[in-house]
Specification:
The chain has 264 residues and is of the alpha/beta class. 46% of the residues lie in helices and 14% in strands.
C-alpha cells in the first residue's frame, strides 16, 4: 500500500474524515515550506498537496497563480523542491505529500527521470490538472511496478459521464473539483453539488475528497454524509500570507479544522 492509502485506511477504520491542505513549494522560501509541513504534520493534517510553481498555471485561481509567480520570482524550482522533500524525509516526516503540478514540468524534466526522483525523494502522489485521463498512459506506465508514487484522479461536474471510466483503476482518493464556491451559496447550489458528489461516491471504490473553495469545516456540513474528506487551498495560502507564513498559525488552523471536521 502507498503511504496515502495507508493513511486513508487508518482514517476509515477510525471513521474519521481526511483533512488535506495545499501550499506552494518555495513560498516564501524553502525553510518556511519545511516548517509549515512539519507544523501541519504535528497538528494532525492528513495529507499535504505541495504545489510545484509553474509560469502559466491556467488551471488555478488567482490566489494560487499569484503564489506560484512569487515562488518562481524567489527562485523556486522542481529540483529545489525535490531537495526539500529529501530533507523532510531525512528529518523523519512521514506525512503523505502529493505534488500538484502541470504536465509540461514533468515532460521538460523527463518522465522516467521525474518518476525516479519522486521515488527517491519520497513523493507519495501526483495531481496533474492539465493531464486528461485519455493522455495518462505514458506517465502511468512509468509509475507502474512501485507503490511509492501514485497518480491521483480529478473529476468535475463536466466530466460526470466519464467518471466510472476515470475511477475504474484509480488509487489513493478521487479529487472532486468545481469552479464554484461553497460559502454562502443558495440551497439550489448545494443540491446540485450534493447530486454530483453522490454520483461520484456511488461509483468510487476509493475515498472521495472535496475541494470547493472551502474555508472552514462548517462549509462541509451539507456534504458531510457523502464525502470522505476536505481540501483547503486558496484560503490556506491567504491565511499564511496574513500571518507572515507562521508555523503556529498553520498549526492552529489545521488542528481546529481537523477537530471540527470530525465533529460535524
Amino acid at each position: 500500500m502507498n503511504r496515502i492509502e495507508k493513511a486513508l485506511a487508518v482514517l476509515q477504520e477510525k471513521k474519521e474524515k481526511a483533512f488535506i491542505t495545499y501550499i506552494t513549494a518555495g513560498l516564501p522560501d524553502y525553510e518556511k515550506t519545511k516548517d509549515l509541513i512539519c507544523a501541519q504534520e504535528k497538528a494532525g493534517t492528513d495529507i499535504i498537496e505541495l504545489g510545484i510553481p509553474f509560469s502559466d498555471p491556467v488551471a488555478d485561481g488567482p490566489v494560487i497563480q499569484a503564489a506560484s509567480y512569487e515562488a518562481i520570482q524567489k527562485g523556486a524550482s522542481l529540483e529545489k523542491t525535490f531537495a526539500c522533500m529529501k530533507e523532510l524525509r531525512a528529518a523523519g516526516v512521514e506525512l503523505p505529500i502529493i505534488f500538484m503540478m502541470y504536465y509540461n514540468t514533468v515532460l521538460h524534466y523527463g518522465i522516467e527521470k521525474f518518476v525516479s526522483m519522486c521515488h527517491t525523494c519520497g513523493v507519495d502522489g501526483l495531481i496533474i490538472p492539465d493531464l486528461p485521463f485519455e493522455e495518462q498512459e505514458e506517465l502511468s506506465k512509468a509509475l507502474e511496478g512501485s507503490d511509492d508514487t501514485i497518480l491521483i484522479q480529478l473529476v468535475s461536474p463536466v466530466s460526470e459521464e466519464r467518471v466510472p471510466k476515470i475511477l475504474e483503476n484509480a488509487r489513493g482518493f478521487v479529487y472532486c473539483v468545481s469552479s464554484m464556491g461553497v460559502t454562502g451559496q443558495e440551497g439550489s447550489f448545494h443540491r446540485e453539488v450534493i447530486r454530483y458528489l453522490s454520483n461520484v461516491k456511488e461509483v468510487s471504490k476509493i475515498p472521495v475528497m472535496m475541494g470547493f473553495g472551502i474555508r472552514t469545516a462548517e462549509d462541509v456540513r451539507p456534504m458531510k454524509d457523502i464525502i470522505d474528506g476536505a481540501i483547503v487551498g486558496s484560503h490556506f495560502i491567504n491565511l499564511m500570507r496574513e500571518t507572515d507564513f507562521s508555523a503556529g498559525a498553520a498549526s492552529d488552523y489545521c488542528s481546529t479544522f481537523k477537530k471540527e471536521l470530525n465533529q460535524l
